[in-house]
Write a structure and sequence with these properties.
single chain; mainly alpha; 3-stranded antiparallel sheet; two-stranded antiparallel ribbon; about 30% helix
């Protein structure tokens, strides 16, 4: 499906190293004489790089999970998949894993996390001061949306240290270190969601599934953020049987 057979050194545990995809694409660029079949193969390579780099990055961002390749068989059908919920399931699982004391790394699309601007104890602005990060030149480009993009400004800190620092800060935070101010209707990040005709969909409490990963989506626990009445939510971990399922074993 990709147009080439990767050498064994580019494969590891169901992952394909990104360098193999990149080198193949650069050596087989599409032009006016490229056949439709080869264009499809090239497209799958590019899509798999997007999946591995942006949507489902590993700890180093250097490989793509080959399990997603089956979803690229029919390129025209890719747009019909609900990728957003799958990405969220992957991110939620990585957030859960990173909360464990033995974990020193974290994967997942951290750039989509808007919570960084709300949690004062791990806000990148505060990290910039407490961790000795040089002040930012106002003329430099600073990513505004998504909020998680701001974390790129502190990537010079080794990840194993950054994960421990953030986890320790979250463990010690108190109730006044979270900004519970509701999202504003003119906020471009949430305006579409708040005004959405199908708002019952994004308010749905349901499982998010990414192959073997099953995580619950629980907007009912933060309804005040969206100008809704907040009821008393139930126990958060009422689906432990699904949450603990792993490809290798059950916890």
């Amino acid at each position: 499906m990709l147009g080439f057979l990767p050498a064994s050194q580019y494969l590891k545990g169901g992952h394909l190293f990104m360098t193999a995809l990149h080198d193949h694409c650069m050596a087989n660029l599409v032009n006016g004489d490229t056949s439709e079949v080869d264009v499809m193969k090239f497209t799958r390579c590019v899509a798999l790089m997007i999946i591995g780099r942006i949507m489902f990055p590993d700890y180093q961002g250097g490989s793509a999970r080959l399990i997603f390749l089956q979803l690229l068989r029919d390129i025209d059908n890719v747009k019909s998949y609900i990728w957003g919920s799958v990405v969220l399931a992957f991110l939620y699982r990585e957030l859960c894993n990173a909360s464990r004391i033995e974990k020193t790394t974290m994967a997942g699309p951290l750039y989509i996390m808007q919570a960084w601007s709300r949690i004062k104890c791990v806000n990148p602005d505060r990290d910039r001061l407490t961790l000795g990060v040089p002040p930012i030149d106002p003329n430099d480009f600073i990513p505004v949306s998504p909020y998680g993009g701001i974390l790129d400004l502190v990537t010079h800190i080794p990840q194993h240290m950054l994960v421990r620092i953030i986890r320790d800060s979250l463990d010690r935070m108190n109730d006044n270190e979270f900004n519970w101010t509701v999202y504003q209707k003119n906020d471009i990040d949430v305006k579409t969601i708040i005004d959405s005709y199908d708002n019952k969909i994004w308010r749905c409490v349901c499982p998010l599934i990414c192959f073997d990963i099953v995580e619950m989506h629980r907007p009912n626990r933060v309804m005040r953020q969206f100008r809704r009445r907040q009821s008393i939510p139930g126990y958060a971990m009422d689906n432990d049987d699904m949450h603990n399922i792993k490809k290798k074993r059950k916890s």
